[in-house]
Design goal:
Elements: E1 5-12, E2 36-37, H1 42-47, E3 53-60, E4 72-84, H2 86-92, E5 101-103, H3 110-120, H4 130-138, H5 145-148, E6 149-152, E7 155-159, H6 168-171, E8 176-179, E9 184-191, H7 192-198, E10 219-221, H8 223-236
Parallel strand pairs: 1-3
Antiparallel strand pairs: 1-10, 2-8, 3-4, 4-8, 4-9, 5-7, 6-7
């Protein structure tokens, strides 16, 4: 089992009752066990192995308006249980919004199947070139299937309508991660600053954000820091009910 550990910051809107402190794009999806992670941070998903510890920290999307100590909250301990392909993710977690591929409807050709898919999701299409796609559909034409579909494991799949990433083909090259069933979410989350004060091996709160940027780089943390956060999660976290989205 791999024991490497990462500290990963995601963005959230905690004032919205429906989302609480969950990731604003549901990736990682921490709503039910097992947790899943399949779109963001392809670099971390590439290197995280079965057994790796992923410690997720929620960042308030209006953090610039808050005191530094009130911007970051330790939200979940995600222990990697499986590394699966994105085709397998479509089969097992078809209703999760962090699955970046989908099945196409039946049809006589790939082009007509793609058109039927786009027409069905026209109102909620979130692709970066949405306006161009809608113009093509309105003209009665069909977008180039090669730009929006892939052949994987003998199946033709389409870029999921709800995903906005233009580099989606690159993101599916990295595994879709599934947590162990004992992974825990912390509700309400714990101020990260208090964790960093208690465990000096953790990065201090003032270095989490990349200089001159709104981004937060993922960080490898050492064994002492990982053990501390795992203990905090065990004592303060809980295991959500098994996902009804998991078809396996």
């Amino acid at each position: 089992m791999d024991e490497r550990a990462y500290l990963i910051v995601y963005h959230t809107y905690p004032e919205h009752p429906a989302t609480q402190w969950f990731d604003k794009l549901w990736d990682p999806d921490l709503r039910a066990s097992p947790f899943t992670w399949g779109v963001c941070r392809p670099d971390v998903r590439k290197y995280a192995q079965v057994g790796s510890h992923l410690f997720f920290v929620a960042y308030h999307m209006e953090g610039h308006k808050r005191q530094l100590d009130e911007r970051y909250y330790f939200a979940a301990h995600f222990r990697v249980g499986e590394r699966i392909s994105h085709v397998e993710a479509v089969r097992r977690f078809p209703d999760r919004s962090n699955v970046i591929l989908e099945h196409l409807p039946n049809g006589t050709s790939l082009a007509t199947r793609l058109r039927a898919y786009l027409v069905a999701h026209e109102a909620t299409l979130n692709w970066a070139d949405r306006e161009q796609i809608l113009h093509i559909l309105a003209s009665g034409d069909i977008p180039d299937p090669a730009r929006y579909t892939v052949e994987e494991e003998g199946e033709t799949l389409v870029h999921a309508y709800g995903d906005h990433h233009t580099d989606w083909c690159h993101r599916i090259e990295r595994p879709y991660l599934v947590s162990t069933l004992d992974s825990r979410v912390i509700r309400p989350p714990i101020p990260y600053a208090s964790c960093a004060v208690t465990c000096h091996s953790l990065p201090p709160v003032d270095v989490l954000q990349s200089p001159g940027s709104w981004k937060h780089a993922a960080r490898r943390i050492d064994g002492e820091a990982a053990s501390y956060l795992a203990e905090v999660a065990t004592s303060c976290g809980f295991i959500p009910g098994k996902s009804t989205l998991n078809a396996s």
